[in-house]
Amino acid sequence: MIRESIPLLAKREERYRNKNSRAKQAIQAQASLLAPVPAASFVGQQDQFNSRESDPAFPSKWFTVETPEQLSEMTDWLRQQPLLSIEIKTTGTNPFLDSIAAIAVYAKPEKGEEKGYCIPLIEREYNSEYSSCSDRPPILPLKSISESLRPILENAPIMLLLHNAKFGMHIMSRLLNITIIPYFDTSIAQALLDENHSSDLEEMAARYLKTKSANSRKSIIEKASLSCNSGLQAEKLMMLDALHDAMLIWELAEFQHRALNRPELHELRDLMEKVEMPFLQIVAASECRGVHVDARYLEDTVSKRLSDDLEQLRQKIWAYTGPINLNSPAQVSEAIYVKLEIPPINKFKSRSIDKNTLSKLSKKHEVIGMILTYRQKAKLLSDFAEKLPKTAIHSRIHTCFHTIGTKTGRMSSSTPNLQQIPASYDGLIRKAFTADPGRLLVSVDFNAQELRWLAHLTQDHTLLHAFKENLDIHSMTAVELWNNKHPKEPVTYECFERLRSLANRFERTDGFDSADDRNCRLTDLEQGKRFAGYREAAKTVNFGMIYGMSEYSLSEKLDIKITEARSYMKAFFSKYPAVEKWMAGTQKQIDALGYTKTFLGRKRRLYPELEAGNVRRRQAAYRMGINAVVQGSAADQLKLATIALQPYLESINAYIALWLHDEIVLSVPSSINKEQLERITEILCNAVVLDSGMTSTIKIGIHW
To answer: What is the pTM of this model?
Structure first.
């Protein structure tokens, strides 16, 4: 057993609360804090490895399972274990394509001796018969393993410990037809206990267990060269590696569980048990189902359209630049700054062609806008229209949702990143995602979720009133920006909205709604267009405050002077004074504690920035901490809403297919009715009751 010790993070927070301990003292305290924590069992096993260089056999308590008798022995042992760690080795990193190489299980009960078993499965296929070669014993078929393990892992009251549990869940389900419910995921616990460090198993072990696991793995690999003489096959080395990781999972889970059970970390324990682990199961089920993608539409319609658009853009750009490779940064830079003689604006990179620089240059020459559009469409073609069909498995996309994909607790997506699929160009790419036969896709989008959280947290009267009366927050801020800049031409919210909406109708292709619209004055239309521009700027300001945008960043984003950006921020705080007060209080909390928390207690630790002794990094810490409270609380709300909705979805044969920040996409039966849709939005919007309320926009159709 790992000895009782004060967990790393708890002690770190305790140290930071001592205001007399500043940066230098903190670093010294950390050095003593990182004193090795003995992992007795691992050290013992490692000693066995190092002392058997001539015969690198398995440690005495680790066993291979290669015969029916050994499988029976292992299952008898499993039935006696209340807690078990599992490590699954595969032939690749895609759980929906790759095969199992080995399954290792490990336990070190308080009463009784530790044991580990590993089943080699490499190159085996489901329902295959026994196979053997001259240089290795027979390997059990997956069918036998599945039939032996399923009753134990699915039905017995056994608590399973895994690292990156969703991956293992998919492999066990797809290849062994075993549905496991993880009790504890060490990668998720790491994200809750120390989001600033890696969740890689080896790095976690080296940091918290002091096992020097990198050296142990190196030792295992070095012994591979002895396999011909010693009889230890590469397959056994792989099994040693699997058992080694299963043991690390056990040790880390023990360490993390002890930390989460400390009284001062009870909020994180509740997050782990009541939110993250239940949410993980729902997400895993959605990943497994996948979402249907119309590959033919992407290949025949989208790719052709984008290719044609790119060719037309290419010819238009060449009319100014001459024939150049638009995918070559050097050639594009040469054309812009040398041939077209456009003055550079980037002080640090005079010939920069990054998106931000080109966006500013777009006002100086029309070809710049064409180049930006070319890049956008080229990305749509390469990253989505061409790649998505290749990513699909039997016409379905199985993305990987990282349930704690950012340090704020927000989800992210990869392979492919569905959260990057734009809604632009009339939803060109999104239309490729279609409902299954007899079903529909329903998109539920929280309205101004993070701004509502800002209103709830700050209790700003103006914000709360605006949401209660269903006013446009961005227009409210825009009115303040306008009046601050044009004190002699003040405008009311009602007038601002009337003229802005008039300009919107004027630009519509279906014409005006009434005779009053047709008889409107040209000056009103022009003013409405100006107001529409102010609303866009106000939208950037509103979200910039949440994301901790600095004056410089705001000026860069809006392409305005820093003095004007400063006046915009001043106008924002003038409109919403309680927000400024709350932010100041949050900064004091960061100074005192070194972290901020969401409403559920999820922490965003800012020690690296605060201890750097750098004013700029401290200011960055303030911005990150404020953003984490708002964005993290919104992420917590999304997860709670998902969990709350699950029973009702099951009752109507519906499920969540995708999560996209503040949007949830569901697959529902085509027979769904209005009352059921209203019930879905009611559950989602009331899972967490905010003083600012929560509303949603719902869309339904065959396509996303």
So the answer is: 0.86
Q: Counting Cβ atoms within 10 Å, is residue 75 exposed (0-12), middle (13-18) or buried (19+)?
A: middle
Which CATH fold topology does 295-394 show? Taq DNA Polymerase; Chain T, domain 4 (1.20.1060)
Give me the helices (H) in 100-231, please: 142-150, 165-176, 186-193, 201-204, 213-222, 227-230
pLDDT tens digits, 497-556:
999 988 776 655 445 555 455 555 667 888 999 999 999 999 999 999 998 888 999 998
Beta strands in 545-671 (DSSP E): 595-597, 603-605, 655-660, 663-669
Give CA–CA dist 545/685, Å, rounded.
Answer: 24
Residue type present at position 664: I
Instruction: List, for residues 404-413, the tens digit of each pLDDT value.
Output: 999 999 999 9
The residues spanned by each domain of the chain are 8-37, 39-261, 295-394, 401-454+598-704, 461-575
**DSSP 8-state code for residue 141:** -
Instruction: Decide if pLDDT at 19 tops 80.
Output: no
pLDDT at site 221: 52
- DSSP labels, 645-677: HHHHHHHTT-EEEEEETTEEEEEEETT--HHHH
**What's 39-261's CATH class?**
alpha beta
Architecture of domain 401-454+598-704: 2-Layer Sandwich (3.30)
Averaged over 379-393, what is the pLDDT? Answer: 94
HSE-CB at 675 with a 13 A cutoff on CA atoms is 1
Residue 80 near residue 152, CB atoms below 8 Å: no
